[in-house]
Amino acid sequence: MKACYGYSSNFIHLAVVGSAGAGKSSFINAVHGLSNDDPFAARTGIVETTDTLTSYPDPRPNSRIIWYDVPGAGTPNVPDWQYFNDMGLYVFDCIIILIDNRFLESDLAILSACQQSSTVEAFIIRSKSDQHINNMANNRMPGFDPCDLDTDDETHSCFLQIKSEEWRSFINKTNENVRKNLEDKSLSPQRVYIVCKDAMLAKLKNAHSSKTIDEGELRNDVEECVHRHLQSGR
Asked: Which of 13, 81, 114, 153 gives the lowest tally of CB atoms within 10 Å of its CB?
């Protein structure tokens, strides 16, 4: 399987996995500093657009990372129960597990396999945080358009307050959801990183983003993971 994926001990191989529509391709584009409409970007869409495992060398100078966009689990072509072995995820140094609205059985199966492995590290990432927070805030103020320049200051201030409340609620609920799912499956506790592609792009460019939650810590922790594997010479 390593030969099929072009595995080389001189590089660190990171697989991005998750259910169809979780945002795998958008995540890879963001860590490469690309917008989804860039001609060199990984293909994205509402339905599963990745039907074969695709590699994307990290574009940063002297980087020794290769990212892999892996077809979504739970699709007709890749049943949950055989996903980890059939996709050869055991050959990767690190697996990024993207979750969207909820933790699926396929996500937990992958994480369980990683925790049983002595060589594969895993990160749990809640994607599309900005979309969810905006949707929840908009649900509480139906008909409000934050882009409407004619909105009075009081209404706009009220919306920002609601959005701040939903921001805190989303973080708390996401952490509790992951904690409970891992506990129910007798898996070891593990952090979840809450991110969105816009804030990840901003972090890569050392720019400020009001959408930032865990993007900086994720970047630092992945870089530490890469350093550990390079040092170990796996």
From this structure: 153
